[in-house]
Amino acid sequence: MKRLLAICAIVALAVVPLAASAQQTPITRFARFTGTINFVATGGSLRTQANTGDSCAVGASSTQTLAGIPAGASIVAAYLYWGGSGNVDANVTLNGQAVAAQRTFTATFNNGGTNFPYFGGFADITSRITGNGALTFSGLTVQTGAPHCGSSAVVAGWSVVAIYGSPSEKLRAVNVFDGLQFFRGNNLLLNPDGFRIPPTNFDGRMTVVTWEGDPGNSTPLNGFSEVLRFNGTAVDDGIVVPGSDPVVQPYDGTVNTAGVATSYGVDVDTFDVTAMLAPGQTSATTEYSAGGDLVLLTAQIVSATSEPVVDLSLTKTHAGNFTVGGSNVYTLTVANAAGNQREDNTVVVTDTLPAGLTFVSGVGTGWTCGASGQTVTCTHPPILTPAARSRRSR
Questions:
Q1: Model's pTM, two decimal places?
Q2: Whole-number Å distance between alpha carbons of 382 and 352
Q3: Does 365 have pLDDT greater than 80?
């Protein structure tokens, strides 16, 4: 682990999902990336007809293009998500190559005594993604009969999320949250975090992957309506699907970055949330709400321009015994639990010497130390690198 000398934790990372029943897989953070990075996402549905046709019809494959990765960028990570109605299918195919799930998710919705089981799969496909291009997903087996078929609740979908690095990108934190939780006639509240918004020149985006959203049957239920909010502000995918009721809704079978309005039962939508962020902010609130339409959330990716994030803890050690009239050394070291990012702010460390000891000097590259009585203070101006060390002699 790389080390920094400092005194306080700047950011504490936490995810607080809404409590879920044992029949669901709670949405939690799976991965966090920082650096000059960004991400793109795509996906699609194997269903071939809308609810106004044969909503139980599922085709063999779905093809969509992964786009937006700049030339010369490197792929940091790429993830494949898939989901469906029925029992877990942990083996699928992407571009003709077999993919086995490394994690699976399940959720069962009970409607009037009838269980509607759903599942999700995840695989790390970083080695298979080299840049932009067409992706063909196939080999997914889902339940197309009762009870799902009679309620227009068949799901067969997929999504690919690719995080890439490029020197031309801003310093960002990209946080990936996943699981499988449903909402109908209620809401799901999450608190994505893992970033620290700088004073100026920042941006933010969020991609949401949900299953079973329909353009119709989205009227209020139990006082809840269909909406997706980021920090209390409703966001819109920008596509109005024929038959939408209400007209503006986020869970309606779209892949908005590709202009697709026929991704039946599958939404892979990306939203610009820059205007909903504020300098210094280290977390946000996302609200997923639906009325009469059952919706299942499986992935939430939040990207935000971020100041370097460090999470510092202090340790104090010495070797040997202290003797009257002699000198010895205390070593104070702070570990950066959040990674190896540099600290761009002034760092101040204070320490109180035990009674009977007198401060002699403080040693450390770039550090200025002094004492007032038993209180020793050491200061390091910006920038403090992860490899910095400091020693103090008494």
A1: 0.78
A2: 24
A3: no
